[in-house]
Amino acid sequence: MEARFHKPPKHLERFFTTFCFGAVKVPDGVTVRDAMQPEWGTLRFFSDTPPTIEFDDGTSLSDARFLASGPTSRKLDYTIGATRFWGIGFLPLGWATFAMPPAHLMADQIVDGLTSPHHSQFLPLASILLNTQAAEQEQLEQIIQFFSEGCPRAKREDPRIARIHQSLLTVDSPNVAVMAEECGVSGRTLERLCRQAFGFSPKLLIRRQRFMRSLADFMLDPERSWSNAIDSSYYDQSHFVRDSHRFLGMTPREYAALDHPILSEFMRNRVKRRGSPVQTLDSPVG
């Protein structure tokens, strides 16, 4: 696994996590299995062999070279062979700004972006990033140009989204009432903004954020026990295990026993370049 994380330029950093170029290097005909963790909305472009995404209901999505996903709250399994790819991660403000549907309509969904009516505005970008002959630097410059000049935007940015996002990053996760007060909005407005830009209710977002802090700590140092990685805001270990079932579909022990040939390397590289191992821990202010 090779991954390079390009930080968006200053005028775009409030909208995106990273622009990531990567390559999966395995022998021809060989595939590896891994999983995506809960994350913000993302566009992924595979110039060679695309992955096969496996859903909880037993169905799958394959042969989609442009994968578009909304914010997720569940683990998503996939298999993949040798390929090059680009990943563009939206922060909640970016999702709300770049002509996307309300986030809750795409929550926990991943679709073929080449055929999705919600992602037609990204087809010019797809034609650039799916070109197997183009160089990484050339494609990076095209990404920046596209989001600087070519992609439709909402009429105005909502500064409340960044305030809500920053509140979610507080280690001592607030309850919903405190969060609304900190962000200067009513409870009803907080609920609406969270669903529109973040994809989920404030209560679930707080819960997901707490769990992702624990999961990221463990993934970066799997020699640690789960008990040492558990976030301090959990009441006890059983509380954490319930969240593990909710977000991963299994116990922490079962998850620790799985091999993560792509994700582990991805997270180690990401924390060196971006400062955080996963999207959900990225700051809204760059």
Automatic annotation (TrEMBL):
GO molecular function per UniProt: DNA-binding transcription factor activity; sequence-specific DNA binding
Keywords, ordered alphabetically: DNA-binding, Transcription, Transcription regulation
The keyword Protease appears for this protein: no
Pfam family, one: HTH_18
Domain HTH araC/xylS-type: 159-258
InterPro entries in the cross-refs: AraC_XylS_family_regulators, HTH_AraC
Keyword Transcription among record annotations: yes
PANTHER family: HTH-TYPE TRANSCRIPTIONAL ACTIVATOR RHAS-RELATED
Protein name, as recorded: Helix-turn-helix domain-containing protein
Organism: Pontixanthobacter gangjinensis
